[in-house]
Structures are given as C-alpha cells and as structure tokens.
Amino acid sequence: MKSYPTVPLDHYQEYPIDEMRERVEAFYDNINRRRTVREFSDRPVPRDIIETALKAGSTAPSGANLQPWHFVVVSGAETKKKIREAAEVEEREFYAHRASQEWLDALAPLGTDSDKPFLETAPFLIAVFLQKFAYLEDGRKVKHYYPTESTGIASGMLITALHTAGLATLTHTPSPMRFMNEILGRPKTERPFLLLVVGYPADDAEVPDIKRKSIDEFASFVDV
After folding, report:
1. Residue by residue, what is the 3-state secondary structure of the chain?
2. What is the total count of domains within the chain?
3. Domain of residue 111, residue span
4. What CATH number has the domain bearing residue 194?
5. What tens-digit pLDDT sequence spans the chain (224 residues)?
6. CA distance 155 to 152
7. Strand pairing class (190-199; 141-143)
8. Alpha carbons 116 and 118: distance in angstroms, whole number
C-alpha cells in the first residue's frame, strides 16, 4: 500500500515499433528545421497559441514536482522598449569589457553584437524566471530542488512547442539580467533565467551557415 496519493496511468500511449520509428523520425525531421532567428517580423501572433505553448512547457518534469518557474509574457511596446534599452546596456559592457577574446571568437560565426532590435520587433518576449524557493499560503518557506535543471527542461519544451506551432524563437541571455525583475515587477527571490523572443521570422531573415554535431560526436552507447 503506497503512503501517498496516486492515480492510474490512463494517458500513456504505446505504439507498434514501426509506428514508433515513424513518429520519432517525423518529430526529428520537424525539430531539425528549428533555427535560432535574430530577424523577426512584427506580424501579430494570437495570444492563445502562446498560452498553449506555455502549458506544454509547464508539463516538464521538475524536482519533487515543485515546478520552480514563472513565465512573464510581454507584448506591450513600452515594456519591450525598456527591456531592449536595459539589455543593450549590459550587452555593450559585455562586448567591450566582460567577454574574453576566446568567447568573442566563439561568437563570431553567429554574427552577434550589442544591438538587439528584435527585442522590440517581435510580437512577444517571454521572460523565464527561476524560483529557488516559494512560500505557502500559511507563510511556510519551501525549498525547490534542482530548480536550474527543471527550469531548463521547461524552457526547452516551451521552445519545442513554439516551433511545432510554426513560430521562430531566440534565446537571449544578457548578463546580468536583474533588470528584468525591476521592469517586470518580479520579486528579488526569483532569478532571471532566460529571455525568449517569439514571433514569425522576417521575410528576408537569414541565419548563420553552421552545422550540428553528428550523433557519433555527442552520444555513446554502453551495451554490456
């Protein structure tokens, strides 16, 4: 007899092996088209699509199921402008003083710089905050376990959901990002984790000519 509440695993769906292969290959073909975009259209995106993608991201596994994340969806022009201005201050400092030459050399093939117009152009910015702990209604403090890993998984699932919907994304991580707490009214107990730019790519958008590693380079199998 289990000492904690459970429910039947009613939603699990098993498929025949051939269908499993077809489904995972189709998923790979789709996700392999995903590219980080830095040139966005200002075309509007229905908010309900963003909401459904957020719900998909929130299904991510998390330490002790404490779901240590909060997403702030920004569509207002005034707030997007404030975020761009604050982010570019940090980015200029990064490129001029904080980044090592080795880091700058690694970024060179991506064509990045301190100018971030996409923060105002794209219809949505999603600020992801990490919560190391939370307070219950009775005031008790609850520690969150593996908050970084959990929030990272949730963000990855959100990006996948947005790509599946046909939207482009950009993961933006100006450092430091504490300005996001102030601009978005989030408590100091939350740590900005990621700023996700979301929308349609510009009609003339281009992406760097880069390659992904082969499976032999990033995976190994232990059979004994």
Report:
1. CCCCCCCCCCCCCCCCHHHHHHHHHHHHHHHCCCCECCCECCCCCCHHHHHHHHHHHCCCCCECCCCCEEEEEECCHHHHHHHHHHHHHHHHHHHHHHCCHHHHHHHHHHCCCCCCCHHHHCCEEEEEEEECEEECCCCCEEECECHHHHHHHHHHHHHHHHHHHCCEEEEECCCCCCHHHHHHCCCCCEEEEEEEEEECECCCCCCCCCCCCCHHHHCCCCCC
2. 1
3. 35-202
4. 3.40.109.10
5. 678 899 999 999 999 999 999 999 999 999 999 999 999 999 999 999 999 999 999 999 999 999 999 999 999 999 999 999 999 999 999 899 888 999 889 998 888 899 999 999 999 999 999 999 988 888 889 999 999 999 999 999 999 999 999 999 999 998 889 999 999 999 998 999 999 999 999 999 999 999 999 999 999 999 99
6. 5
7. unpaired
8. 5
Q: Is residue 182 assigned to a domain?
A: yes
Question: Which residue(s) pair with 195 in the sheet?
Answer: 127, 172
Question: Which pTM does this prediction carry?
Answer: 0.94
CB-based contact 92:115 (threshold 8 Å): no
Which candidate, 203, 194, 139, 172, places its Cα nearest to that of 36?
172
In a domain, 160, yes or no: yes
**CA–CA distance from 190 to each of 53, 82, 193, 209 (Å)?**
22, 19, 9, 36
